[in-house]
Amino acid sequence: MSTKKTQAMQETPQEETQAKASAARHSRTAKPAPKPAVQAVIFIGASSISMMVAEDRPEGLRVLDVLTQPLELVYDFFLSGSISRDTADRCVQVVRGYNELLDEYRRAGEVTVRLLATNVLLDVEGLDLFVNRLQISCGLHLEVMDDGEMTRLIYLHMQSMPRKYEDLVRRRLLVLHVGPGNTRLLLCERGRITYYANYRLGAHRTSAAVGAADPGSPENEYLLVREQIRSLVEQMRHDAEESVSGEPEALVVYGPDFHRLHSPLVEQERISLQTLAELTDEVAAMPLSQRMEKFGEDYATVRALLPTMAIYLAVAREFSPRSILLPADEYSHAFLRSLMPSQRDTQGLEDEVIHFSVLLAGRYHVDRGHSQQVRRLSCSLFDQLQSLHRLTRHDRLLLKVAAILHEVGTYVSSKRHHKHSQYIILNSEIFGLSRRDIEIVGLLARYHRRGEPNEDERSYAELDLDNRLRVQKLAAIL
């Protein structure tokens, strides 16, 4: 290489100094990568209070901590309809303790906290006082989950199935979720939800009723459990007779209490009806003390195990699936993750709500072309008037559902069909919508004609101010 070329490639001392100064300025002005946002969810469940802390990273949530403390909340309100003072004190103590633990994370930056409670609290007397006490003592607002939130969580769990059970995705699957106070039954066909029903039949609700009867022996306990659940399980079969004909490919069972005890009971994820019956008989033969020793869980969780398994078995016998699927995923962790503030994308669920509403309209022979046109025009008006009404994306979904279902009442009679529509909607289960949502949709159908919302209508008068305004705006658009 020539001397000239070598000199050209070398920097002079002055150029080298300028380069270093430029690099130093760049390092001072370059912004450091933002720290991942820290989120926490505290969940007051039927038999425990849990907290999950996680970082919201671009690649997904990174769990930092999970804590659980037992709390027998359910027996208070299933037996007396209210929360005892001792239970409320213990609840406040645990939530306050969790919130104080979050102070360590708050030193490094802001922490978003969400406090939720099981939906069975909706029936509790004095709920407002309990919510207010938590707000004052802990500085956190309690959200009590409704049916809409629960169906969203079930939907998220179901969405994870294709990755593990590809052979079942396109088949007819019956999904059974046994919660503390309610049981939900869904039929999935080709990956879409085509049937949904919700029953006041839950593991802890049944356990409390049986415990109040003082069974005395394991044999009597199992007898009382079966008697307690029999009529509602028969009702499930009757209600689903038209929609669920023939044998489903599989019955997929979910339940918080059973999943915590999954491994000690069974290692396989797919079992036969006979195996489920044998497992249920095995648990039923154990005294409660022996179950607690075997499973190492708290009293309320172990006590709810037999009702959970009895419901699984009774439903399986009614519908005769070819196999029973017991997903072994850590239910409680997946449940808490799905409650995180950043995990609330609902587009997929909204599609299922619309799909289910169209199916419901079809059962009542609604003119599909007319309902589609009303839906299209209503959504167009909603979007164009956004700056005036300031309603939310969820309100837009309720408007869509009302547009699809507003003429189901013509199945009864074309005269006063708006009132018939409201009646049918109020007495239907719509997957993904809470009871309050369904009431609003019913009111929109009621007032889609000339009448204006007024307080002579009891269901309208019972709404709070925000929801009355919501009905007025949406009914005007529809």
Automatic annotation (TrEMBL):
Which InterPro entries does the record associate with it?
A: ATPase_NBD (IPR043129), GppA/Ppx_hydrolase (IPR050273), Ppx_GppA_C (IPR048950), Ppx_GppA_N (IPR003695)
Positions of region (Disordered): 1-33
Ranges for domain Ppx/GppA phosphatase N-terminal come to 61-324
What SUPFAM superfamilies does the entry give?
A: Actin-like ATPase domain, HD-domain/PDEase-like
Listed Pfam families: Ppx-GppA, Ppx-GppA_III
Recorded GO molecular functions are: pyrophosphatase activity
Output compositional bias ranges, type Polar residues.
Answer: 1-20
Q: Which residues form the Ppx/GppA phosphatase C-terminal domain?
A: 360-478
PANTHER family annotated for this entry? EXOPOLYPHOSPHATASE, RETROGRADE REGULATION PROTEIN 2
Q: What is this protein called?
A: HD domain-containing protein
Species of provenance: Candidatus Akkermansia intestinigallinarum
